[in-house]
Amino acid sequence: MDNVQKDTIRNNVRGRYKQVAIKEISIKSSCCGSSDSASFDEVSAKMGYSAEELASVPQGANLGLGCGNPQAIAALKPGEVVLDLGSGAGFDCFLASRQVGSEGLVIGVDMTTEMVTKARQNASKGQFTNTEFRLGEIEHLPVANDTVDAIMSNCVINLSPDKQQVFHEAFRVLKSGGRLAISDVVMTAEMPPEIRADIDATYSGCISGASSIEELERYLQQAGFANISITAKDESKLYINEWLPGADIDQYIVSAIIQAIK
């Protein structure tokens, strides 16, 4: 994939998520989102968020964009620095901020200006003083070397047209012993050409951008990570088909937990 193709994908994704931020709706009939704005909490509950967690964030922070609950597997500790790749309106960041406490810091990075603005507004509304949101691409993180204890991400890395670079950047900013705690979709079977050919239903809808478990393991190994663990969540098939109705996409992708150590 050349740079022009990569930019086309990024611009398509950025445009779609700009509309999500502005309208406070999720991406209809696609992955990483509910088609009904009133059901965001219901969708998130299916992905492992508790009622307490859902009630603890500012209104408008949860846009129903995800495929799991990464902060639940991150084993966050008070005082840690946490980075969220593709932080959206700040939902997972605000949950993580409660775990790291006032001595910790949560940094959200998103490439969509409107999402960063919305997240900052939510942080102010909820008086989250240990969170900050930065505009940037996850392939080129606005974060210093060796400064992060844990990296989270929720159904975002599949959107990147250069996943190897994402993991190189993650390795760069993590401290020695730092860890990845990622929820994302993985490909379990080759997709039909008609699905792969539709960029709106694929990259910006989190479908054809999915990598196989073997590919992800290779990306992580080449970036330098150890203790790599990728666990598919078969129960996610219960909601995956809602992302692209009629396409039976649960035959091709599934949500997974991705963990590794620097």
Automatic annotation (TrEMBL):
Q: Which residue stretches, if any, does this entry annotate as coiled coil?
A: none
Q: Which organism is it from?
A: Paenibacillus puldeungensis
Q: Which InterPro entries match?
A: Arsenite_MeTrfase-like, Methyltranfer_dom, SAM-dependent_MTases_sf
Methyltransferase domain segment(s): 77-224
Protein name in the entry: Arsenite methyltransferase
Q: Which family would the database say this protein is a member of?
A: Belongs to the methyltransferase superfamily. Arsenite methyltransferase family.
Its EC number(s): 2.1.1.137
* One Pfam family, short name: Methyltransf_31
Kindly state which keywords UniProt assigns to this record, in alphabetical order: Methyltransferase, S-adenosyl-L-methionine, Transferase
Which NCBIfam families does the protein's record reference?
PRK11873.1
Q: Which domain of life is it from?
A: Bacteria
Its GO biological process annotations read: methylation
Which reaction(s) does its UniProt entry say it catalyses?
A: arsenic triglutathione + [thioredoxin]-dithiol + S-adenosyl-L-methionine + 2 H2O = methylarsonous acid + [thioredoxin]-disulfide + 3 glutathione + S-adenosyl-L-homocysteine + H(+); arsenic triglutathione + 3 [thioredoxin]-dithiol + 3 S-adenosyl-L-methionine = trimethylarsine + 3 [thioredoxin]-disulfide + 3 glutathione + 3 S-adenosyl-L-homocysteine + 3 H(+); arsenic triglutathione + 2 [thioredoxin]-dithiol + 2 S-adenosyl-L-methionine + H2O = dimethylarsinous acid + 2 [thioredoxin]-disulfide + 3 glutathione + 2 S-adenosyl-L-homocysteine + 2 H(+)
**One annotated GO molecular function:** methyltransferase activity
